[in-house]
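Lab notes, practical 5.
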Amino acid sequence: MLFDIARLIEDCGGASALAKKLGVARTTPYRWAQQGMVSSRMLVRIKEIEPNVNIDDYIVQGDTHELGHNSERRAGVSG
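Output from the prediction step:
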């Protein structure tokens, strides 16, 4: 199973809009998508600003190649 970070970012209005809502650098969501990892702390903040987001919707079946990642390490959530 994988966590589809790119889809989560898009569903929250795109990288720039999400960064602005979170008060982080505009490049931060792009980095999450590129690295294939987002911290649990950020997920909590996303949930606070986007209460209708269901995190479970972004957990998908498949392997890292389906999301364009080249390593298992890039397929999840960090602490």
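Observations recorded by the TA: Helices lie at 5-11, 15-22, 28-35, 40-49. The first strand starts at residue 2 and ends at 3.
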